[in-house]
Write a structure and sequence with these properties.
Distance between the termini: 32 Å
Radius of gyration: 13 Å
Largest sheet: 2 strands, antiparallel
CATH class: Mainly Alpha
CATH superfamily: Winged helix-like DNA-binding domain superfamily/Winged helix DNA-binding domain
CATH topology: Arc Repressor Mutant, subunit A
Order of helices and strands: HHHEEH
Number of domains: 1
Strand content: 5-15%
Oligomer: single chain
Helix content: 55-70%
Shape: globular
Number of strands: 2
Strand order of the largest sheet: 1-2
Length: 92
């Protein structure tokens, strides 16, 4: 996997963890990271297309939870996010 692709995928995967941590609200995540809700939605859809399965369970356009595979992805994404936070703390 190319570095640029890996960076993009990590960005998308971390978005999954953030959406779960914000009660599945893409709008809340967008406000926190200063982007738009459609941008968050697009990143999630790109990741789902890349993986070949849905991460989030939906009711229409609303995210209502995680699929089984989505739960696995989210657990791994949360580990990545926690490790990134720990790495950042090393500079303190």
């Amino acid at each position: 996997m190319k570095i640029g692709h890996m960076k993009s995928m990590l960005n998308h995967v971390i978005m999954v963890a953030l959406v779960k941590q914000n009660d599945f609200s893409q709008t809340n995540v967008a406000n926190v990271i200063m982007t738009s809700q459609p941008a968050i939605s697009k990143k999630i859809r790109i990741l789902e297309a890349h993986l070949g399965f849905e991460i989030f369970a939906r009711n229409g356009k609303s995210i209502i939870g995680l699929t089984k595979k989505g739960d696995d992805v989210c657990r791994l994404a949360e580990n990545i996010l926690e490790n990134a936070i720990e790495i950042e703390r090393l500079k303190m």
